[in-house]
Design a protein that fits this description.
With 289 residues, the protein is an alpha+beta fold. The chain is 61% helix and 14% strand.
């Protein structure tokens, strides 16, 4: 079980320079990625997106790439084809114009596109893309490890509240026989306090209707089943957040039904405690992948 919240900052160094990846992720219903890449690496973005999908299933991920060449002078490249064209054209101009002076080499270097700064150094684009993929993969592995550690902490908190919810359900279940008996006794006393002549059969019918209205055995059974399923899902592999969120809705539905049927103050208090625990679990589950 993994959290969707994590932060990773990794710097990779080699002879070329530094590749710096920064990954920030928060909870989200689906996988949503935001890339901040240098313009010269835009050609690698599709491959990087595929790599992210292999490691993450849900969450809003912000991914930033910074390139820091070790020697910026080595990253300058001269467009020799353009230089050859310019030289040929300048020679023709000088032959046509007698007064044309010598061309200033420094001024020539200012020609747009003649000198370019390469982000790849001596590496070809495909080689550099593989380098980006390899470094991002390492950063993603660390990011997933961080999310896993956060998931363990979330699971421990959920297990604690799950045990508390089980205890509340067990308490409600244990109180119901006594509550039924007390309700029947109160009903009998009410009939006896009136001047109406009520037969034992009529009293039994009224008692049966009362017990049926306040019966929460079915809700108790479903609560126990859902709580068992929550634990099973948390112990399973892969993304579990959506399944757990659905189970929280079902648990809350049963707790509300118990509250509406509540035959005694003790059961009302238990249903309130259950709803509080379910809401606390639901808030934590929002961060689970």
């Amino acid at each position: 079980m993994k959290s969707m919240t994590a932060y990773t900052h990794r710097t990779f160094q080699d002879n070329w320079g530094e590749i710096v990846w920064t990954l920030r992720s928060v909870n989200h219903r689906y996988l949503e990625t935001q890339y901040q890449l240098p313009p010269e690496t835009a050609f690698a973005e599709p491959a990087l997106r595929d790599l992210v999908k292999q490691h993450l299933a849900r969450g809003r991920l912000s991914l930033t790439l910074q390139l820091q060449p070790a020697n910026r002078q080595d990253s300058l490249q001269l467009d020799r084809g353009l230089l050859s064209q310019l030289s040929h054209n300048l020679e023709q101009i000088q032959h046509s114009l007698r007064d044309a002076g010598q061309v200033d080499p420094v001024a020539l270097l200012k020609w747009p596109g003649l000198v370019k700064e390469s982000a790849f150094g001596d590496l070809k684009p495909e080689q550099f893309k593989r380098r980006l993929q390899d470094t991002l993969k390492e950063a993603l592995i660390e990011h997933v490890q961080t999310r896993t550690r956060e998931g363990v902490a979330l699971k421990n908190g959920l297990m604690q509240r799950l045990d508390q919810a089980r205890a509340e359900v067990k308490q409600a279940q244990s109180k119901m026989p006594q509550i039924r008996q007390q309700s029947q006794q109160k009903l009998k006393q009410r009939f006896e306090s009136t001047s109406l002549d009520v037969s034992a059969e009529r009293l039994a019918q009224e008692a049966a209707l009362l017990i049926q209205k306040m019966d929460i055995d079915e809700e108790i059974d479903r609560l126990n089943a859902h709580l068992t399923e929550v634990k099973r899902v948390m112990d399973s592999d892969g993304p579990v957040g959506r399944r757990l969120d659905f189970l929280m809705q079902e648990l809350n539905r049963e707790a509300n039904t118990i509250a509406s049927k509540s035959p005694a103050t003790e059961i009302s208090q238990i249903s309130i405690e259950l709803k509080v625990l379910i809401e606390q679990m639901r808030e934590q589950i929002q961060n689970i992948e």
